[in-house]
Write a structure and sequence with these properties.
457 residues, mainly alpha, Serine Threonine Protein Phosphatase 5, Tetratricopeptide repeat, two-stranded antiparallel sheet, two-stranded antiparallel ribbon, 9% strand
Amino acid sequence: MKNILNKFVCTALIAGSVAVSSCTTDDLNPTLAQQKEDQNAFSNVDDMEGVLKGMYNRLTPAAYYGRDYLVTNEARTPNIWANGSSGRFVTQASFSQGATGLYFWDNAYAAIATANILIELDIETLEGDLDYARHMQGQAYAVRALAHFDLLKTFGQQHTGGSLGVPYVTEFKGEDLLPARGTVEDNKSAIYADLEQAYQIMDENFFDSSKEFISKYVAPSLESRVAVYFGDWERARDAADLVIESGKYSVVSADQFIESFANDGGVNSIFELAYRDTDNPGSDSMEYIYRGCSYGDISVTQDTYDNLYESDSDVRTNVFGTETCGDDEFLRNLGKFPSRSSNINVIRYEEVVLNYAEALYELGEGDPLQWLNMIPEHRNADTYSTVTKENILEERREEFIFEGLYYWDLLRTEQDIVRSEGQVINIPYGDPRTAWPIPLSELDANSNIVQNPGYQG
């Protein structure tokens, strides 16, 4: 029986070393004997790199960060609507997701399983640079935390009146083959623990200037995101401060803002996923879903297009544009994710700055206005005279439109979701539809999994 522990990890022994082969989700079902063989196949630190790259590869498919996870989050906000050009994302934008076709669950747990292979290794038995081996294990802890956090936000009951999160899987071949859902609080604690461990064991000397591999300060960057989501303001402040004080990142300037989405490894990028001319989702990419007449399923709402930015000089207005397809004209995202081979940012420095500003505001300390204004100052936009929660949330919306963050801001601040264009919706805070159903394939495979309310029928 397939389940989240054995469903997706496919490893191959090639010339005495370990590499992750390119497998579909249909053939990723190793036996326990194969798992043990794979675990014992490492003799050198260099052997870890193939699995490390495979771990990152699990984050990049269209069903995860390559498109669906980010666009689905955006499609559930008033920013955009699904125009039905190719029939994609209408279901998600309408809050009518069923319990089938939820491949994000598959890919996230595939990344977790691959991370667990690296975490479980006894690196003291390996030949080579053990500092680098520990650094790779630190990257695995960070990915395990990130994927579980994405799953928790999507499937957890923290905004629907319940207490259940997701199964937090910490072993590649553990004895618990049918894990139950943990609580939201237990999930949160485990995510924090993994990020803290990642930060502790990663080596600053292995900083990756391409930003395509996780470096030491990615861990506190992600921790600040998690802490803001849960309202753990002291933790958010301290984690963001670590990143700021590292001096490794900066807010991108106004004249480079649009170009930063076409250029890889920019000054504001903390962690991004790599795509290439010969290795990308193709027609399932972000580019195809946000623009073009073959797909182009995502349109900007008129209200967002007209009113999001108060100043015409704000460089972020250049992200918007119009596109004519036949007799129809659509309002589009033309600036972000400009090419199918463009890298996709998982987290950038501007988010850490705004996390810090919000934490200072909530704690009533420091100068949150200074940090809030750091963003509009670099966008040729009007600055704020006072700092309020509303101003912080508005700046986040303006800065991260199309990047999939606004939906979580609406939920964590307990707001209703209202859209009067396209898929007209009025989703009150607490509505069961704001949490996705556990996939039917997982329910069939795992008798210990409990479905979310509203999807049992």
